[in-house]
Amino acid sequence: MTESTAHTDLWPAPTATGAVDATVTVPGSKSVTNRALVLAALAAEPGWVRRPLRSRDTVLMADALRALGVGIEETVSSSSSPAAGPDAAGEAWRVIPAGLHGPATVDVGNAGTVMRFLPPVAALADGPVRFDGDPRSHERPLHGVIDALRALGARIDDNDRGALPLTVHGAGALEGGPVEVDASSSSQFISALLLSGPRFNQGVEVRHTGPVLPSLPHIRMTVDMLRQAGAQVDTPESGGEPNVWRVSPSALLGRDLVVEPDLSNAAPFLAAALVTGGRVTVPDWPERTTQPGDSLREIFTAMGGSCELTEAGLTFTGTGRITGIDADLHEVGELTPVIAAVAALADSESVLRGIAHLRLHETDRLAALAKEINELGGDVTETEDGLRIRPRPLHGGVFHTYEDHRLATAAAVLGLAVPGVEVENVATTAKTLPDFPELWTGMLGSVAGATVAGS
Ligand SMILES: O=C(O)C1=C[C@@H](OP(=O)(O)O)[C@@H](O)[C@H](O)C1
Ligand SMILES: C=C(OP(=O)(O)O)C(=O)O
């Protein structure tokens, strides 16, 4: 969290004066889209990524792969693929793999997936690839990827910083093999090495050596998508050693993949049902998924709502009463900001644990949530590994967002119940959810008497 941001634009968060009753179509998953792009770029044949998320993080990924020589064409497709399903017509990315070339320059913005997933890809290029990004990207942990790639045979020039900016001197191939990584600061270190692993001469065997590994569902997502692309992956869950993942060298298939809705970005909309005692349906909620956002069904039910998965999607219904929770969120850390906002509106205390690594996300999320909710009259304290939230009556005010999309959506949730919340730089939601203000007001359009604070 840096103290000051240059943004002066304030978005008056709409206050709900009634129960929401809406269906909200949530755009595609950032995590699935960016994995799909990387795997398609490394494949031996062209593939499709349908219903991709088009947001800052995914456009940065596509542009970076293009800079390395991969063809990515935007199309409006009417799919004839059975895999795509009857209603999968619509926008798609056609990915045409090619030899990976340097010199190239990659702007990672502040996308963890781009800054961590692409250095291993760059090691396969035939020349130098320079990586840089937003000022915050220089502070986010990358040492796990850098050290592991060096151990696997890559040459990287990072001025001994263990962080961005850096240059990967691609040599056209990487030896690969066994490597140890402390991924306690980001699961993305492991995902990064596994995703490119099939293309290393010896494949890769990644052993996590540090304390608790966060975001395991995201590693499962990596493994799942690798397997669907034809890779052979051994995991702790498939009978392998604890904390060891092994990917064999192989060609990857070009897939026809339909991206699921981003279930973590469904969080503010489901929260609206909880906060207003209303009902929100998110269509196309997958029956089976590796996305951490699927845990919202359990977490928000524990906080006082109920949910039902039908053909129409996931319908979440609130009662207007919110109960605090004591929850370990280390597997689903990216859900924390919205859960914290809901907890601040509950009728009992919450403790959110297991999320110390959030201090290294888009901003220091623990510090930012505590400061901003407290500035609205709340009582949030940082613990060693999370937050303690004691609900108090809140008042309006400016909610600073620190270039963090999830801080902005959390603020919108507070604004439903607290008149006069003004969200600084709501446009920062474009990192993963570009149409957030429109989706939000569209959802509230279904509330009789919805008002916009400050208007
Ligand atoms: O692999 C991914 O797509 C992600 C993994 C998680 O990262 P961390 O393990 O760094 O928390 C998550 O928070 C991030 O939003 C997306
Ligand atoms: C931590 C997040 O993003 P990133 O992929 O940049 O790590 C997030 O989206 O909550």
From TrEMBL:
InterPro entries: Enolpyruvate_Tfrase_dom, Enolpyruvate_Tfrase_sf, EPSP_synthase, EPSP_synthase_CS, RNA3'P_cycl/enolpyr_Trfase_a/b. Gene3D superfamilies: Enolpyruvate transferase domain. Keywords: Amino-acid biosynthesis, Aromatic amino acid biosynthesis, Cytoplasm, Transferase. It is an enzyme of class 2 (transferase). Catalyzes the transfer of the enolpyruvyl moiety of phosphoenolpyruvate (PEP) to the 5-hydroxyl of shikimate-3-phosphate (S3P) to produce enolpyruvyl shikimate-3-phosphate and inorganic phosphate. Belongs to the EPSP synthase family. This is 3-phosphoshikimate 1-carboxyvinyltransferase. It comes from Streptomyces mashuensis.
